[in-house]
Write a structure and sequence with these properties.
Length: 234
């Protein structure tokens, strides 16, 4: 069981950006993926989610291959992704964004899923009719996470959740990931603030120039910061 990446290679614009990446994500656990900008973290997320075609290797979700599937088929298999940059449908209202996320569900089930998401982010209730493009960055990230919750994923990929957000907003979002993990969701967290990731993660990977250079427990990196220092200076 779990999300397993084995020997994954990926090329973008003729340049190999992922080299034989191995990574696993277990249900009910938060796994952090760290590394400098340009290390290949977001490319890995896009490859897992089906947005970029891998050159070689394998991606399995609970024992079933998902490599080569279309993104919507991967989402239907139980994997949701929150891409970097608060990506919401700016022209639509908050409510319509949430409905789009639940459009694959029967109407009653969709309404129930939206109610659950709004229970997680009650701040959005008073902004349901607001144009999503007019929201603050933190509110847009709440919408993006709410969309993922509505999809009822077994696995969630959260790419740079804190990007461009004030610490107080980040402190509001992080417990949501912990709550999802407590419900049994496997969470892959790509995070620029290493202290946040190491505080909440059960396992951690470090990526350097498209390769995994470390995998283990957060305590190992806390006790040996030279590993992270080397990766971020590479």
């Amino acid at each position: 069981m779990g999300l397993v990446v084995q020997g994954l290679d990926l090329a973008r614009s003729g340049k190999t950006v992922l080299h034989g990446v191995d990574l696993s994500l277990a249900p009910g656990r938060i796994t952090a993926l760290l590394g400098a900008n340009g290390a290949g973290k977001s490319s890995l997320v896009l490859a897992i989610a089906g947005a970029l075609p891998a050159t070689s290797g394998e991606i399995t979700l609970d024992g079933r291959s998902i490599r080569g599937l279309r993104p919507e088929a991967i989402r239907a298999s139980g994997l949701a992704a929150v891409p970097e940059g608060h990506q919401v449908l700016n022209e639509l209202s908050v409510e319509d964004n949430l409905k789009v996320a639940g459009s694959h569900l029967p109407r009653a089930e969709m309404r129930s899923a939206i109610d659950v998401a709004l229970g997680t982010f009650p701040e959005l209730r008073e902004r349901l009719q607001a144009r999503s493009g007019n929201l603050s960055g933190g509110q847009q990230q709440m919408v993006a996470l709410a969309q993922a919750i509505i999809a009822k994923p077994r696995y969630l990929l959260a790419d740079e959740l804190s990007f461009g957000l004030a610490p107080v907003v980040v402190a509001r979002l992080v417990p949501v990931l912990q709550e999802l993990a407590a419900r049994g969701v496997g969470v892959l967290l790509i995070e620029q603030f290493t202290h946040i990731a190491l505080k909440i993660a059960d396992a951690v990977y470090v990526m350097e120039r498209g390769r995994i250079c470390f995998s283990g427990e957060p305590r190992q990196l806390i006790d040996n910061p030279a590993i992270l220092h080397s990766a971020y200076l590479a």
